[in-house]
Write a structure and sequence with these properties.
The chain is mainly β and 154 residues long. It is built from no helices and 13 strands.
Length: 154
Amino acid sequence: NTTYNYSVTQKSGESYSWLVSNGSIVSGQGTNTVGVKWTGDGLGSVSVIATNANKCIDTLVLQTLVGGVAVKEFGKTSQFHIYPNPTRGQFSLVGENLNNASVVVMDVMGKVVDKRGSIQGNQADFSTSDWAKGLYTVIITQGDAKETKKVVVY
């Protein structure tokens, strides 16, 4: 089982908190470089939250394909956006074509934490006050099209 290293440029006074889905952190939590062992084929992600001395936060999320699993691409640019991301308390999912879409939000273990049947309008607001800190997957489905987004709760 190979360890893969991921890093960000280290900046003086910053602290780093890493999150991984479909794998585990084996070294480096709290530093600017983390070692990850992937647990299985499929989609995985590595996220880092960098916090400076003034409590300003920056987030980077890398989605990766582990192993040889093919992923169907729909061939269009993202039409949905999440803000603020990272978030503490709530976030909004917005998009011109969000009307009649369904949305499922899952934690890194695959547990559904929120589910919406048919969105009306171009925005849906989600409260994260009862969610644990971490990385969440937001799956938007509209007809036969599906888009996946990530949101970090801190």
